[in-house]
Amino acid sequence: MPLCESKIKPKSWGDIEEQFAIFYASKGDDGIMWCPDCRAVKEVVEEIFDKEDAASALIIYVGQKPE
């Protein structure tokens, strides 16, 4: 099942239908995650979860750079 990006913050874990939640640093104005560690694992996460028979996962962006 493909990865899904959360457009809103879920109010509770019960609101999430996916099997996994992946937390990334928020994206900057340029559309790129500011955190180098998040950018480093992005390709691996996509390789694991972005397959038709993979477990479902929801990407949630948290943590602005100034925070």
Description:
- It holds the Pfam family TXD17-like_Trx.
- It comes from Thelephora terrestris.
- This is Thioredoxin domain-containing protein.
- This protein is α/β, with parallel strands linked by helices and 67 residues long.
- Helix content is 21%, strand content 21%.
- The longest helix is centred in the middle third of the chain and has 14 residues.
- The protein is flat, with a radius of gyration of 12 Å.
Fold blueprint:
Elements: E1 4-5, E2 20-25, H1 36-49, E3 57-62
Parallel strand pairs: 1-3, 2-3
The average pLDDT value, as a whole number, equals 84
How would you describe the shape?
Answer: flat
Order of helices and strands: EEHE
Structural classification: alpha/beta
Instruction: Please report the distance between the alpha carbons of the first and last residues.
Output: 32 Å
Q: What are the segments in which pLDDT stays under 50 over at least 5 consecutive residues?
A: none
Share of helix among residues?
Answer: 10-25%
Quaternary structure of the protein:
single chain
Largest sheet geometry: 3 strands, parallel
- Using only C-alpha atoms, the radius of gyration works out to 12 Å
* Secondary structure tally, helices: 1
* % residues in beta strands: 15-25%
For the structure shown, list the relevant keywords.
67 residues, alpha/beta, 3-stranded parallel sheet, 21% strand, TXNDC17_dom, Thioredoxin-like_sf, Thioredoxin domain-containing protein
